[in-house]
Amino acid sequence: MAGRWFEEFKVEQVFDHEIRRTVLESDNMWFSNATCNPAAIHIDAEYCKTTEFGRPLMNSIFTLGLVIGLSVQDTTLGTTVANLGMTDVRFPFPVFAGDTLRSRTSVLELRASKSRPNAGIVTFLHQGFNQRDEEICTLRRQALMLRKPESK
Fold this sequence. Notes:
By secondary structure, the protein is an alpha+beta fold. The protein has a single domain, classed as Thiol Ester Dehydrase, Chain A (Roll). The chain contains 4 helices and 6 strands. It has helices at about 25-35, 40-45, 45-50, 60-75; strands at about 15, 20, 80-90, 100-110, 120-130, 135-145. Strand 5 (about 120-130) and strand 6 form a beta hairpin. The longest helix is centred in the middle third of the chain and has 16 residues, at about 60-75.
């Protein structure tokens, strides 16, 4: 199991995740189609030529999911019960096909669960960056994390 138990997190702990991902036009088209998002800014290259960006923007929800996904192997793989919420989501810079994204996660808060003795709540700050080190996404995420099982 690659993920960490609740007790293995420390406030102010920072993870610079090793895995990076270059995003593709096909990712954008697939995700926009799979989520029934027909916004021209994502799927119509001719329309996008008339915008300030000049080309399609990657779907921001795809970007959000990827930034979190890049963190999973180092933090929550196999140890998450559930995501409880995401707040303060921002996209300071646009993402385009061909950009290579990486993710950083910081632990902001830890608290024992009041209703589940086998779990605790971790508040993460996830940040995504492109190949120019521009922050392209940031958010806070609260996750219900399993506590380490007691040895018998």
